[in-house]
TrEMBL record:
Tagged with keyword Amino-acid biosynthesis: yes
Gene3D superfamilies found in the cross-reference section: D-amino Acid Aminotransferase, subunit A, domain 2 (3.20.10.10)
Catalytic activity from the UniProt record: L-leucine + 2-oxoglutarate = 4-methyl-2-oxopentanoate + L-glutamate; L-isoleucine + 2-oxoglutarate = (S)-3-methyl-2-oxopentanoate + L-glutamate; L-valine + 2-oxoglutarate = 3-methyl-2-oxobutanoate + L-glutamate
Pfam family, one: Aminotran_4
Molecular function in Gene Ontology: branched-chain-amino-acid transaminase activity
Protein name: Branched-chain-amino-acid aminotransferase
Organism encoding this protein: Cyprideis torosa
Amino acid sequence: TVQGGVGDVKAAGNYAASLLAQKEAEAMGCDQVLWLDCCERKYVEEVGTSNIFFVLDDILVTPPLSGTIMPGITRDSVLALAKDRKVEVQERPIAIEEVLEGCKSGRLRESFASGTAAVISPVGAFQYRQQEYIINENEVGPLTKEFYQTLLALQTGATTCEHKWQIRVC
């Protein structure tokens, strides 16, 4: 989304504009579109309609909220859980070239999408300019699993947490 636009809110136009790209991605065997910034087409912003995370070495990296992506509730939850677990987090611009190089070198150990419907969805590979880049031999990483299991347990009431995210409704 363009800076100053409505990429940071749920608006029908945001979804409608993505339909053609999503159809093209599916035709290439991909599940989602990894969106880059609209100005330089260099920095990763989102995946599909979800926030994106990368585990580079032992650092959890996610694009910053710059007015062009959704400030997701699940994104906030992941960041809080990471802080609880003393995982180093960086909210910073991340170039697609850094992601691809991380796949090649093994520095990119995990990637996942977060969203209300997606909860935590692992990313096993990226396709970019007709080349596939595999992450962690297409295996779900430990941090991705932990975040998924924790959030699912919180959503279903199987556990509680100090953040008071749950409210009992009778």
